[in-house]
Amino acid sequence: MRLKNKVIIVTGSTTGIGKAIAKAALTEGAKVVIHGLEEDLGQLATKELGEDNTILHVEDITAAGCAERLVNLAVKTWGKLDALVNNAAWIVSSDIDTTDKEFLEKVLEVNSIAPFLLIKSALPHLSTSKGVVLNIGSVNAWSGEPNLLAYSISKGALMTMTRNLGDVLPRTHGVRVNQINPGWVLTEREMIRKKQHGLSEKWYEEIPAMYAPSGRILWPSEIAAAAIYWLADESGPISGQVVDLEQHPLMGRNAPKDSSTIHGKP
Question: Which among 5, 65, 71, 101 has the fewest CB atoms less than 10 Å away?
Fold first, then answer.
């Protein structure tokens, strides 16, 4: 039980990677605040994960006061807060022609500013527990795909914040901050997105080796397994680190010109 009695907030945890992290944390003995945008998905996730050690909060992560309400819910329910997983994100396509000021600000608000505000709200309690922040980024933070401009910018900002706070907060508050950058993951939403792009029902079984040398893309449970290490005490004093979870090197790979028809990392 690597997370026994630890209280953890996982944003965006009604589906996909977030739900997988919540499930893994519960299996390791944690108590988890489940968070999402849709009430129906939240209820389904809570039923699946079990109600004994979970509590659900449904709200737009960018709503004024949402960060405080999430933190207060955890502390009111279980008396403390040991970890925050910033997983909620808006995955949306855009390029230089379709990205204007208003759109970019909205993407940054969800993917970069909301995680920052949650860290600020959680910090007093994490300082008491000598806790940890785990940000879920994306390999697109390094430069990103042509059709994921705004999203890539926002994940780049999140990665810089992780390194900055990961350096400062251990010294000032005793709180570690690290980040996982998933590659291409087979989430429920990714399956839907690709079918909307015109691909077959089983598109994930026909991915070229260029994108999946192993013959498949990543599963949410594999990202969750890595997350447990960073949330557990076994990661010791390590802070300010960003770990890419992909099955091939990111630098020096040249994708085919028609890569946008199949590729779509989170």
Answer: 101
